[in-house]
UniProtKB/TrEMBL annotation:
Name of the molecule in the record: ABC transporter substrate-binding protein
Species assigned in the record: Aeromonas diversa CDC 2478-85
InterPro entries: ABC_transpt-TYRBP-like
Pfam name, any one: ABC_sub_bind
Amino acid sequence: MRVGVVVLLLLLTLPAQALTIAMVLWRGETQAEEGFRDELARLGYRARFVTFNANLDRNLLATLLRQQLLPNIEQYDYVYTFGTTATLMAKSLMGGRKPLIFNVVSDPFGAGILSDEPGVNRQVAGVSNLVPMGLQLENGRRHLPAGRRLLLPFNPREQNTLLLAEMVIHEAQRFNWPVETWRIVPVAKRLDSELARLVHDAGDAIVYLGADSYLLSVAPRLLASLNRAGIPTLCGAELFMSYGCSVGTISSYESLGRMAARIIDQHSRGTPLEAIPLQLDPAPRLILGGREKPVP
């Protein structure tokens, strides 16, 4: 028997590599985590996952991290985080004690999660869900009514939304597209009144919905209100498309989860995390009225 065949057979009979992974989630399970688990299994890893779900609550997130994750940090091989808020808090409290793999963070450099300085990213790498804002707005201009301003609801309690607002405003200048920001109060008992106010203020606008965790958590009611009023929408997150957003150029959460898993695979095979560049979806999807179209 040839040596190469013997080596192949030995590799096929090796047990899957065992990993223990803490999953720090800001708003519960998404398709990103499903893709993450599936890809790790496909790559031959036998992973045990321990989930810490903040459920959009900063105080709960801090409690989970301080009282449950950190006292047992040595038992984990990796810490996976979803979203800007969870990633920032986990990174700060962990202090580089374990490799951190973040997912669905729109602007990790702007948020201070990654740095351009050499040697700073030794224990962190990850995936951004952001599709280039210029491409998003270009598709919006092409497929939405002309002559309308862009209204941008934002949650002042979430840094990610503020960073996205800056991107939208900056890129919209290229298209001479007027943009107005609109503060939404992220309080459940005020949602009905906030939606009524939004519909009133957006009557002659196109509403841009970015990947803000609060907006995503109320996506069904948010899109239902805007759609009933006939207000066109431009969206930057996959979940909004499920509830009737007019136009979106978006990344697949399932694909992003698989990309995060491949970072762990590269690191396990010897590639330093700081040598793994920020991962972006190479094939964003253009969705028009619920139907996928080729991206120009």
